[in-house]
Amino acid sequence: MVHELYRATGLPVLQNRTFADAASARASASADIVLVQDQVSGLIFNQAFDADKLSYDSDYQNEQAHSAEFKKHLSDVEAVIARHFEGQNLIEVGCGKGYFLEQLRDHGYAITGIDPAYEGSNADVIKAPFTRGLGLAADAVVLRHVLEHIADPVAFLAQIAEANQGGGQIYIEVPCFDWILERSAWFDVFYEHVNYFRLDDLRRLFGTVHEAGHLFGGQYLYIVADLSSLQTTPAQTIERMSLPANFTASLERAVQIIQSAPEHGSGIWGASSKGVIYSLFLQRAGVAVDQVVDINPAKQGRYLPLSGVRVSSPQEAMDALPEGANLFVMNSNYLEEIKRMTGGRYVYHAVDSASFQ
After folding, report:
1. Residues 222, 270: one domain?
2. In what order do the strands lie in the sheet with 266-269?
3. N or C: which end of the chain has fewer CB within 10 A?
């Protein structure tokens, strides 16, 4: 039994896939979100999700480690891992482009990676989805920003536990749904994420939890637990939840800001998940920004799904946007870094801050 929390239609199937031309981007696949809460497990997921629509390849770009602020976050993650996994053999399931895996290797960890979107040359990374058939086992498993993509997260964790001989430890990191609700961050809900976790949801999954908390300014949750203590059925009564009544109200505020001063120009800083959804919804509301900026070179000069918006480099955007332009910053964690990069020349709107709601 489930109850509906939120609905959105026509979102990109893979919001972090970029395209070589605007026409291909506009013609890319779309799908719907029907966010529901399961009344037995308490887990929140997209009831309309179809995993067969997803296919990760080299056009999928979600590397955040170009930012000094995000590198600081990865150092915080490494500190958690060091407290529990130091000297142990590790497997990172969903290692992406391998940046964090290489960071752990540089600090002496023996680690194997698994990811179909991997592009590097490390022979210890398997370019494939995780399956039990890979025959891999380790003292501990690192699972960063993977579980939100898996249609049945409990079954997936059970597969990892079984593949790992029924035990070992696991570090899990996922976006925090409570943070999304507190900030009315409607642009942080997208098709590729089938699951939306709260800290209590993660705690309920395991009988033995060694550490749990928040990272990255509260945007992420993490937990360190024993895989052998995975609980496939909840032991607690689940509280029914609901979304804030004004969950998407900030979209109209952004529209008004852009329409009130078109001569000043406007831009979005951040062409990853948040910026993809934000620019698409602005476009559908009848307005368009002049620039969408990203520091990831792999995204620059390419086009975002459905909206067909072109991604600019920071220098290109600064050359085009006049002083005093409105700049919508998609992640407030990067606000000070962006101000430094742009010399404080714009009017900055951190759209995920409490003051913007």
Report:
1. no
2. 311-312, 291-293, 266-269, 326-329, 347-350
3. N
Residue that the structure tokens 């050359």 belong to: 319
**146 and 281 share one domain:** no
Model confidence, pTM: 0.90
Domain limits at 284? 250-356
Residues 50 and 129 in one domain: yes
- Contact (Cβ atoms closer than 8 angstroms) between residue 188 and residue 269: no
Tens-of-pLDDT digits for all 357 residues of the chain? 899 999 999 999 988 889 999 999 999 999 999 999 998 889 999 999 998 888 765 556 555 555 788 889 999 999 999 999 999 999 999 998 899 999 999 999 999 999 988 888 899 999 988 888 888 889 999 999 999 999 999 999 999 999 998 999 999 999 999 999 999 999 999 999 999 999 999 999 999 999 999 999 999 999 999 999 999 877 677 888 999 888 999 999 999 999 998 888 999 999 999 999 999 999 999 999 999 999 999 999 999 999 999 999 999 999 999 999 999 999 999 999 999 999 999 999 999 998 886
344 plus 211 within the same structural domain: no
